[in-house]
Model the fold of this input.
Amino acid sequence: MTQTVHLKVAMPCGGCSAAVKRVLEKMEGVQSFDISLEKQKVTVVGDVKPQDVFDKVAKTGKATSWWQD
Done:
């Protein structure tokens, strides 16, 4: 089932967002993603479990939390 996952990720630079991009590109089930340095927001769409996406992004060493609207 397709899910949309929104995360707040501390990414002070382009290198930080590149690290997040690399792990999402390799993650099975991810159909698309958007990384906003300005908003410090990562949006992932795909046949994925939200907690799996959270855990994978958190393993990059960036402070990660659930996005609050």
Summary: The chain has one domain: 3-66.
